[in-house]
């Protein structure tokens, strides 16, 4: 998880984005935030944007100040009605994956918001969708497909009105669960070997 700040203020005073990236699927979740966002507010953004869809991750990786992360965890687990005792690591781990997403996100927002820079927050759902619908180089699949074994429908993929019947799933289809596991393993091994 990481923040992008110094964006033009939107109508609600947001000047930043809280970015969450799943380390396995590469799924991205985005939430508009104010520069003055507190740890309790960050915890609430996590619950609203990540927890309700995916549950708790096994671990968080962030390059934020360890005291802030500890405060975040305290409020998050208070919101979830449980408890966590944390110890601070000697060396905070940098989240290069999220940093890369941040660069791509900033480029996309500059492109789509050039005419109206203060409208960036209204486009976050579409930008998040686009990021999650793009094939990721390390997995060979889209984050949507890795998470749900399907791609969501878009206006371009809707069937014609006269052809609304569904087809039977093909067990041999490489996009099925068995094929997905095989392909993801092969792609990850290849990605690791090539560096």
From TrEMBL:
Residues 1-151 form the Integrase catalytic domain. One of its GO terms (molecular function) is nucleic acid binding. GO terms for biological process: DNA integration. PROSITE patterns: INTEGRASE. This is Integrase catalytic domain-containing protein. It comes from Phytophthora rubi.
């Amino acid at each position: 998880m990481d923040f992008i700040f110094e964006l033009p203020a939107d109508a609600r005073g947001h000047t930043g984005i809280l970015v969450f990236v799943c380390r396995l699927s590469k799924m991205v979740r985005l939430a508009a935030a104010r520069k003055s966002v507190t740890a309790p507010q960050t915890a609430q953004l996590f619950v609203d944007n990540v927890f309700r869809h995916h549950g708790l991750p096994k671990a968080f990786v962030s390059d934020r100040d360890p005291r802030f992360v500890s405060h975040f965890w305290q409020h998050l687990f208070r919101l979830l009605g449980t408890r966590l005792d944390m110890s601070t690591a000697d060396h905070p781990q940098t989240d290069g994956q999220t940093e890369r997403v941040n660069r791509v996100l900033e480029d996309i927002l500059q492109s789509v918001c050039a005419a109206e820079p203060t409208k960036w927050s209204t486009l976050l759902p579409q930008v998040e969708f686009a990021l999650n619908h793009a094939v990721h180089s390390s997995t060979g699949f889209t984050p949507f497909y890795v998470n749900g074994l399907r791609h969501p429908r878009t206006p371009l993929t809707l069937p014609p009105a006269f052809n609304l019947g569904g087809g039977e799933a093909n067990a041999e289809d490489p996009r099925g669960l068995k094929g997905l596991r095989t392909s993801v393993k092969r792609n990850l091994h290849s990605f690791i070997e090539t560096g």
